[in-house]
Design a protein that fits this description.
Elements: H1 28-33, H2 43-53, H3 57-71, E1 73-74, H4 76-80, H5 93-114, E2 116-117, H6 119-132, E3 137-144, E4 160-167, E5 170-174, H7 176-179, E6 181-184, E7 189-192, H8 203-209, E8 210-212, E9 216-217, E10 220-221, H9 224-229, E11 232-233, H10 235-239, E12 244-246, E13 251-254, E14 258-265, E15 273-276, E16 282-284, E17 289-291, E18 294-301, E19 308-313, E20 316-325
Parallel strand pairs: 1-2, 13-20
Antiparallel strand pairs: 3-4, 3-8, 4-5, 6-7, 9-10, 11-20, 12-14, 14-18, 15-16, 15-19, 17-18, 19-20
Helix pairs in contact: 2-6, 3-6, 5-6
Domain Transglutaminase-like: 111-178
Protein name: Transglutaminase
Length: 326
């Protein structure tokens, strides 16, 4: 009997007008980890260094996240040309588990030594280092939402993986694959761009971009419909706590000439805020109002608006919606 090992690969798709870049501040843990060697002789040596420098579970978990994000890059070549999956036969459950562990150990060592991986390698390495540092961690497999075409998809697929780690008796969400950078289509290469927003992420924001295969988180059922039909948000959206409170769907069904009201948290009416029409021309938001910490405004949906509408704060994408003309 053959068991196929499934490789969970994540593509960082970046169109110039979609990527949100911003200045990233490092916390005290990150600043210490930045001084670490880029290479250690073994994962055990790295874990010992982390345990020596940090005592709290939170700091250890963050140090592992930071070191991986700083030093392991996304293997885009492997994404484009994935290696053939390895199969194996077994006669007992014990033999099956032993061979699975061998494959996992090989993946961890390859990711650590070559310093490149796809999401399967990132998550396996994070879990391994967490366990060496005395932390409990698990790998979660599921779907990811990253491009405009993901808005309003009909079904989820299992194309990504991330971690949860137990810190102070509470499970925290970790996606170190996304913490290390992104793929820049304009340059045709991966760009290292550390962000901390995928360490101990707010579940509301995290599950706007991730959906586990189980459909649950800590026993709580998640809404597949909200994930599939919600708007597309970006790193700056999470970092600035720009919660989208209206409309309540990423699918905007309108008639030509109809107005739609939007509300987005933590944006000033004096900010440089606009959207692009279907010719990629910027259109300034007219007559915005500040209400209870949110910017409220209307957009008239005429034939100048294309299939998608993306709002920008300065040069940064905040949120995208899919437009369905009735």
């Amino acid at each position: 009997m053959t068991i196929k090992k499934i490789a969970f690969l994540f593509l960082f798709v970046n169109f110039i007008f979609l990527h949100s870049s911003y200045s990233q501040k490092y916390n005290d843990v990150d600043k210490i980890v930045l001084k670490y060697p880029k290479r250690f002789n073994s994962t055990e040596d790295l874990a010992k260094r982390i345990q020596k420098d940090f005592t709290s579970e939170s700091d250890k978990a963050r140090a592992i996240y930071s070191w991986i994000a700083f030093n392991i890059k996304y293997d885009y070549a492997s994404f484009l040309n994935p290696p053939r999956t390895q199969g194996f036969s077994y006669s007992t459950e014990a033999e099956k588990q032993r061979k699975i562990k061998q494959l996992n150990d090989k993946l961890i060592q390859k990711s650590f030594t070559a310093q490149k991986a796809v999401c399967e390698g990132f998550t396996a390495l994070y879990q391994h280092l967490a366990e060496l540092a005395g932390l409990k961690s698990e790998i979660i497999k599921g779907d990811s939402k990253t491009i405009l075409e993901d808005i309003g998809r009909k079904n989820t697929s299992s194309n990504h993986a991330w971690n949860i780690v137990l810190i102070d008796k509470k499970w925290r969400l970790i996606d170190v694959t996304w913490g290390q950078g992104y793929y820049d289509s304009s340059k045709g290469k991966m760009v290292k761009d550390f962000t901390s927003i995928y360490f101990d992420s707010d579940p509301d924001y995290f599950f706007a971009k991730h959906f586990p295969d189980s459909g649950t988180f800590l026993g709580q059922k998640l809404s597949k419909e909200d994930f599939l039909n919600g708007p597309l948000i970006y790193n700056i959206t999470i970092d600035g706590d720009h919660q989208i409170t209206a409309p309540n769907s990423g699918l905007i069904e309108v008639k030509n000439g109809e107005n739609v009201t939007f509300r987005i948290k933590n944006i000033s009416k004096t900010a440089q805020f606009f959207y692009l029409n279907k010719k990629n021309q910027p259109v300034k938001i007219e007559n915005p109002k500040e209400r209870k910490g949110s910017l409220e405004f209307e957009v008239n949906f005429d034939k100048n608006i294309g299939q998608f509408i993306t709002f920008y704060l300065g040069e940064n994408s905040i949120v995208s919606f899919k437009v369905i003309m009735k």
